[in-house]
User: Which sequence fits this backbone?
């Protein structure tokens, strides 16, 4: 985390989006986003449906006019440029390949607009076809290709002009799950080989986590948090991020003890206190949330010492995932807590695994919860 | 696989459904055409109907078939007919081009407006069909006449000293032809343009093509089938058009429809009229059959989709 901060301070941003707003009528689809992107970064915008990801991307491409705000790319203010004047290319979610042109003509289309000499166009098209391993299909029409092949042609077409910025809107959204996972790595490899600065939109968090160097979490037109996948997972800064990335258990309550080395939260739903081993900045009595990841919750069959960060409950559901199981434990308050338990946990302790209806004890270490103020 | 099985199960019903249009074509196109073809090989006769029959069963069981090629010979030898065919094709071609030039922007604009307004605009395009075609041509006569509305108005405001020659010439002919056939161009063009994926234009723009370039490289090629359909809808009936050249055309307007009419009603020469019609059909069918083959080959290519 320190490293990333240092790096971003030393290198000046390549793309700089300042307080950009897009309103459709009275509602703001993008509501004041400020974001800096570094050169050669693969940045993923992640958020639920309708949060404004596509709108933000389309403003970068020039297909939507921002209501206000500024976009600077490599020192040039591009806020008001038309799409065809921007050194930016986009790969569309539906690929938008030109149906009446061959694969090679699709890739050459952008180059022809730049009046590039024919020989150079042919060379570049061949290079792009090799890059996406589609040389054999150069003369096919888009409808003669499979979904995955179309995706690669669309990628080649958007890379052919060597754009300063590549935009990918749900690049793998049209592929089925299995092909998608395989293509994720292939796509990242290609992007890294070319060394292009890239912003991609997705609502698949796994895709964002595997592909991106940094992630931005969007909700209702606002950018809630920006960071590396690990930062966002380990240190979510709000409830939305905590719940959106991975799974979590949230407890709320007032801060009752706030010392430099610990915080205690009176969590009614837990029926006790949550104890955290570091201080927070905020007034005492403030309402906060504590986020505890299921994998940080320990499940015991025998009573654990009463105190903070512990509760008793009954198993209501067990989901088996091979190497681990997720237990749903209903606490006295009626709140259901999720706990991820490795399969060999019981075996190693020489215990019978708990089943439906069994009484169990849940607990976690004081360094596990993350305190959220919003 | 599944679809094939489904089709197999549907087969008897499917055959019946497919046969309906074929039956329709047979009944209303092929049969009448062969009747016309038959008459064209006959000779004029003072009888009812006014032509000789081709086959005569004589005594002794001898079947006489008389094919009179004289009408075709006459059409081919008298260059009046060649000129008329040519000028009909010319008039139809010009009408088609004008309809295309006017209709394309209109169809494009309608396809790009929001759906609520689109229906109103389409209604406006089709509105003329609610009155009789003949009535609309007469309305134009009232407008274009030497002392019609337009000329009276221009004279009244003193813009011209004598009536403009708007009527009974090629100007009025083409004006009314284009007016009458424009909807037949707009509707098929519209139905193709409205289906076009707007993201393709966005993609073109994203790749550096300005609006004009994008139109010529994307929109126009993708609406090719609409252009072909609209042009055929205008061109084919325009070649044989009779009413418009008769009512608003000039005295020297040569159109095959008019010749047909003359042969039928003035000369009562049915075999000649039938021969003129047959040649016209052949002139039209050959290029269309060619186009059709081209189209089906394209469709077969798309079948792999
Ligand atoms: N052209 C438009 N006119 C009016 N409202 C629009 C328009 N485009 C988008 N919106 C609205 O703006 C909001 C954000 O849309 P956007 O397409 O950016 O969402 P998204 O995050 O890309 O969602 P998804 O993941 O479903 O693609 C939505 O509420 C949408 O209805
Ligand atoms: Mg979207």
Assistant:
């Amino acid at each position: 985390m320190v490293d990333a901060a240092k790096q971003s301070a030393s290198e000046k941003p390549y793309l700089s989006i300042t307080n950009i707003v897009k309103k459709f009528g009275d509602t703001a689809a993008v509501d004041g986003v400020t974001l800096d992107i570094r050169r050669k970064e693969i940045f993923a915008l992640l958020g639920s449906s309708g949060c404004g990801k596509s709108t933000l991307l389309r403003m970068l491409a020039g297909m939507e006019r921002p209501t206000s705000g500024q976009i600077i790319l490599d020192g040039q203010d591009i806020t008001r440029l038309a799409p065809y004047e921007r050194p930016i290319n986009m790969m569309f979610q539906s690929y938008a390949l030109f149906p009446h042109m061959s694969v090679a003509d699709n890739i050459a289309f952008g180059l022809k607009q730049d009046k590039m000499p024919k020989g150079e166009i042919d060379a570049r098209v061949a290079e792009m076809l090799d890059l996406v391993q589609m040389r054999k299909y150069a003369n096919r029409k888009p409808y003669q290709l499979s979904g995955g092949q179309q995706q690669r042609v669309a990628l080649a077409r958007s890379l052919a002009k060597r754009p300063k910025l590549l935009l990918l809107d749900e690049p793998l959204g049209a592929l089925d799950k299995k092909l998608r996972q395989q293509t994720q790595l292939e796509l990242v490899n290609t992007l890294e080989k070319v060394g292009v600065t890239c912003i991609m939109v997705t609502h698949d968090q796994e895709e964002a986590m595997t592909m991106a160097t940094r992630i931005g979490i969007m909700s209702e037109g606002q950018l809630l948090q920006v960071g590396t996948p690990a930062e966002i997972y380990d240190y979510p800064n709000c409830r939305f991020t905590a719940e959106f990335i991975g799974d979590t258990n949230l407890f709320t309550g007032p801060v009752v003890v706030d010392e430099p080395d610990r915080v205690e939260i009176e969590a009614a739903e837990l029926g006790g206190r949550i104890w955290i081993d570091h201080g927070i900045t905020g007034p005492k009595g403030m309402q906060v949330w504590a986020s505890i990841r299921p994998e940080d919750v320990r499940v015991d069959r025998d009573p654990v010492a009463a105190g903070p960060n512990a509760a008793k409950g009954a198993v209501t559901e067990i989901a088996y995932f091979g190497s681990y199981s997720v237990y749903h434990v209903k606490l006295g308050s009626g709140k259901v807590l999720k706990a991820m338990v490795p399969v060999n946990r019981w075996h190693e302790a020489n215990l019978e695994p708990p089943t439906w209806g069994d009484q169990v004890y849940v607990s976690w270490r004081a360094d596990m919860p993350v305190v959220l103020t919003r | 696989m599944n679809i094939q099985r489904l089709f197999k199960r549907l087969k008897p019903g499917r055959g019946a459904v497919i046969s309906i249009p074929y039956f329709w074509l047979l009944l209303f196109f092929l049969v009448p055409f062969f009747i016309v073809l038959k008459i064209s090989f006959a000779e004029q006769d003072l009888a009812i109907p006014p032509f000789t029959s081709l086959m005569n069963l004589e005594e002794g069981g001898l079947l006489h078939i008389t094919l009179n090629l004289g009408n075709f010979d006459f059409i081919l030898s008298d260059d009046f007919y060649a000129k008329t065919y040519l000028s009909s094709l010319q008039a139809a071609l010009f009408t088609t081009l004008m309809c295309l030039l006017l209709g394309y922007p209109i169809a494009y604009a309608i396809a790009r407006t929001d759906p609520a307004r689109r229906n109103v605009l389409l209604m406006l395009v089709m509105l003329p069909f609610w009155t009789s075609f003949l009535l609309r041509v007469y309305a134009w006569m009232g407008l274009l006449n030497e002392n019609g509305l337009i000329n009276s108005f221009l004279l009244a405001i003193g813009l011209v000293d004598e009536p403009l020659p708007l009527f009974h010439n090629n100007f009025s002919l083409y004006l009314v032809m284009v007016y009458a056939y424009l909807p037949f161009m707009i509707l098929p063009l519209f139905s193709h343009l409205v289906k076009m994926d707007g993201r393709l234009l966005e993609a073109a723009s994203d790749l550096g093509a300005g609006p004009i370039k994008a139109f010529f490289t994307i929109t126009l090629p993708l609406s090719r089938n609409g252009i072909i359909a609209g042009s055929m809808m205008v061109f084919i009936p325009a070649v044989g058009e009779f009413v418009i050249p008769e009512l608003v055309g000039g005295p020297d307007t040569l159109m095959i429809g008019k010749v047909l009419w003359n042969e039928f009603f003035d000369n009562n020469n049915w075999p000649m009229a039938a021969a003129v019609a047959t040649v016209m059909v052949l002139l039209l069918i050959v290029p269309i059959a060619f186009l059709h083959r081209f189209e089906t080959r394209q469709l077969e290519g798309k079948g792999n989709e």
Q: What stands out?
A: The first helix of chain A runs from residue 2 to 10. Chain A has two domains: 2-242, 247-372. Residues A 24, 29, 47, 49-55, 203 surround adenosine-5'-triphosphate (ligand 1) (CB under 6 Å). The radius of gyration of chain A is 25 Å.
